[in-house]
Design goal:
Elements: H1 3-25, H2 32-40, H3 58-69, H4 78-99, E1 103-104, E2 107-108, H5 110-114, H6 116-135, H7 139-166, H8 174-199, H9 204-231, H10 234-237, H11 243-246, H12 252-259, H13 263-276, H14 280-284, H15 288-300, H16 303-320, H17 329-344
Antiparallel strand pairs: 1-2
């Protein structure tokens, strides 16, 4: 499938999901509905209609494909797509505040524009509505889908807690990093990849296989994110240069580099050990050259290449999870193409 066809698949997810997503956000009391609309890119900071980038929409696309994998119409997966998007954006609102990120999707984050209190409240509200939207579908499928969403949400929060705890540690193993990323990113993509099928009446065997596909796809997605978090072009990512290094994140390239042998790994370890003891104010005074030096050591120690290889390994494992599942060939091809897109993206 060409990039144009993948874009069309993502756009279908946006087109079918956005009206229901807007309706869900409209349930919020003012000013939370306006703050949420700003976060989603529907309006600007002054309340005017906006055509801002609303994100990649991978999760909605997966939820709709998931429904089709179970033999249902893509529209069957819409409540699941909306619920997953609400949880995802709940996490973004809180993550931006916790991480001190001032930019997302090329504009100021919610806490920067509307204040920390609104970022917390709107995030909480989106989380609550996600379950409301699902349970309103009714029936056994809705209850099963809501349970999967609840489990994924817990794991996502576990992953964020792990990620924060890593920032001031001197050493994080690759295994710990993969566990954290499996929770923080893999769990919700796993839910997106199975929730439409559950709503479409799929049995647990089918839903579990799609969940495994989504989990490993999530690990591939996060591995690519980790690469972009250090070496990504700010013009494409919408974040600062060396973004993850500024936040002292122990992402996969860092963990893999520290675990390697050689002089670069030892130099990097010494720098990170010293960094962990610095205050936020001291660390904020670092200049571009200091972050560039750390990025160069990570690359020299092999962390960049290992992470790129890991993204491909997780991609391949995700596709193997689809083996033996009965689904239309076109749906299988689209799941493969979406996986391919995730490992070659630049933002």
């Amino acid at each position: 499938m060409s990039q144009t066809a993948v874009n069309a698949l993502l756009e279908r997810g946006r087109t079918l999901t956005t009206p229901a997503l807007r309706a869900a956000v409209d349930r919020l009391a003012p000013p939370m509905n306006t703050v949420a609309a700003y976060h989603f890119g529907w309006i600007d900071a002054h309340g005017q209609e906006s055509a801002s980038d609303g994100g990649k929409a991978v999760r909605p696309a997966l939820a709709l494909l998931s429904a089709e994998a179970a033999g249902a119409a893509p529209e069957t997966g819409v409540p699941g797509a909306v619920a997953v998007e609400l949880v995802h954006n709940f996490s973004l609102l809180h993550d931006d505040l916790m991480d001190g990120d001032e930019q997302r999707r090329h504009r100021d984050t919610v806490w920067k524009v509307h204040g920390p209190a609104q970022a917390i409240l709107v995030g909480d509200a989106l989380f609550a509505i996600s379950h409301e939207v699902l349970l309103e579908v009714g029936g056994e499928g809705a209850a099963r889908a809501a349970r999967r969403l609840a489990v994924a949400s817990r794991k996502l929060i576990d992953g964020q807690a792990q990620d924060i705890s890593f920032e001031h540690r001197e050493f994080v193993s690759v295994a710990e990093c993969l566990e954290m990323e499996g929770n923080k990113t893999g769990a919700l993509l796993a839910c997106a990849a199975s929730i439409g099928a559950v709503l479409g009446g799929a049995d647990d065997t089918t839903a579990d296989a799609l969940e495994r596909y989504g989990h490993h796809l999530g690990l591939a997605f996060q591995a690519v994110d980790d690469l972009l978090g250090i070496w990504g072009d700010p013009a494409a990512t919408g974040k600062q240069t060396w973004s993850d290094l500024r936040q002292r994140k122990k992402s996969l390239p860092v963990a893999a580099a520290v675990a390697a042998d050689g002089g670069a790994a030892r130099q990097l370890t010494a720098l990170l050990t010293a960094d962990a003891k610095k205050s936020e104010e001291e660390f904020a005074d670092f200049d571009e050259a200091e972050f560039a030096a750390r990025a160069a050591l990570i690359e020299e120690a092999g962390g960049r290449q290992w992470t790129a290889d890991e993204a491909r390994r997780q991609h391949d494992t995700a596709l193997r999870a689809l083996d033996g599942l009965g689904m239309p060939d076109t749906v299988r091809e689209q799941l493969v193409d979406l996986a391919d897109f995730i490992v070659i993206r630049e933002k």
